[in-house]
Amino acid sequence: MDGGGSTPCISPWCGEKWELLNCDETDCNGNGVCTNGSCKCKAGWYGSLCEKSCPHNRYGPGCEYSCYCNDNGVCHHVTGSCI
Questions:
Q1: Which end of the chain, C or N, has fewer beta carbons within 10 A?
Q2: How many other C-beta atoms are found inside a 10 Å radius of the C-beta of residue 47?
Q3: Helix (H, G, I), strand (E, B), or coil: what is residue 72?
Q4: Do 65 and 55 form a contact (C-beta atoms < 8 A)?
Q5: What is the CA radius of gyration of the chain?
Q6: What are the annotated disulfide bridges (predicted)?
Q7: How many angstroms separate the CA atoms of 70 and 49, rounded?
């Protein structure tokens, strides 16, 4: 996807609706791996470029797990451990 021909690109995005990533031009912020035009985020991260850590009380792959910490503790976005 070099932007030549019919696929427009503005780094790192390509496609008619900017829906595809040019994997040669992104490292998914070091929080994932780019394959087939999209970032697959590591546990604890989300976003189209893996740029966001899981929100409060969420953790793990796709931020799918919930966690609750006593005494106003905060869940670690990757492990769910209270920190």
A1: C
A2: 14
A3: coil
A4: no
A5: 16
A6: 41-50
A7: 32
The distance from CA 51 to its chain's CA centroid, rounded to whole angstroms, is 5
- Residue 66 pairs in a beta bridge with 58
Contact 75, 82 (CB under 8 A): yes
Tens digit of each residue's pLDDT (9 = 90 or more) over 5-57: 566 788 888 888 878 888 988 999 999 999 988 999 999 999 999 999 999 89
Local structure of 62: helix, strand or coil: helix
Q: Is the pTM of this model over 0.90?
A: no
**If DSSP codes are grouped into helix, strand and coil, which group holds residue 65?**
strand
Give the residue among 15, 6, 7 at the shortest CA–CA distance from 37. 15
